[in-house]
Amino acid sequence: MDLKECKGAIEAMLFAHAEPVTAARLAEVLEIEQPTVERVLLALRDDYSEPGRGLCLLQLEDAWQLATKNQYAPPVKRILDTRRNTPLSQAALEVLAIIAYNQPVSRGFVEQVRGVDSSSTVAKLLEKGLIEEAGRLDLPGRPVSFRTTEVFLRTFGLESLAQLPPLHGDELPLEQYAETGELPENTEPPQNRGEA
After folding, report:
1. 169: left (phi over 0), alpha (psi -120 to 50) or beta
2. Is 39 helix (H, G, I), strand (E, B) or coil?
3. Is the Cβ–Cβ distance between 45 and 59 less than 8 Å?
């Protein structure tokens, strides 16, 4: 691997890892000498220090991490707040209800109940921290299972899953209390309405 390729690989790993990583670990993964990795990291840090670059390479004791430059903090904060505060779609509310009442469940189970592909909805709920991976199920293919999180409980004003409304009635008006945080009485899981 030449230096240019090495530089690209290290940059890609730092970006994908998103947490501090040591030069020793990068060298181990690339199967090259640690001093070579350290030279490349210093070169990358110099590249990112150029004006007009939005990222910087931080050295945190013996670890390195890609980060945004402080001067771009306001727009970065706004874009992250926008992503977090986007109201939940009908599809997201349906998937949340299915997971909350049946957890841990696989994405396949959710899709079987809804009758439509739910991969993008599951990904959005993971990004918002409302659900999380809960290991693998003992089923063919060992699918990943999902469960709700403490963020889900806080968002909907619950102390525990035991406070979920009973499963009866005609509608699950989650959208009503997604905004208010107050749970209505007599709710049931959503009907299949397709991906929103």
Report:
1. left
2. helix
3. yes
Q: Where are the domains of the chain?
A: 3-72, 86-180
Sheet holding 21-22, edge to edge: 21-22, 63-68, 55-60
Crossing angle, helix 23-30 and helix 34-48, to 10 degrees? Answer: 110
Tokens of 139: 């089923």
pTM for this entry: 0.46
Token reading at 182: 């107050």
CATH of domain 3-72: 1.10.10.10
Residue type, 180: T
pLDDT digits over 66-106, tens only? 988 989 988 888 877 765 566 888 999 999 999 999 999 99
136: three-class secondary structure by DSSP = strand
Domains 3-72 and 86-180 share a fold: yes
Question: What residues contact 81, with CB distance under 8 A and at least 6 apart?
Answer: none
d(CA 7, CA 44): 7
Beta strands, E only, the chain: 21-22, 55-60, 63-68, 105-106, 131-136, 144-148
Six token digits for residue 110: 């959710």
The burial class, CB within 10 Å (0-12 / 13-18 / 19+), for 178 is middle
Answer whether 181's CB lies under 8 Å from 157's CB: yes
Domain 86-180 has CATH 3.40.50.300: no
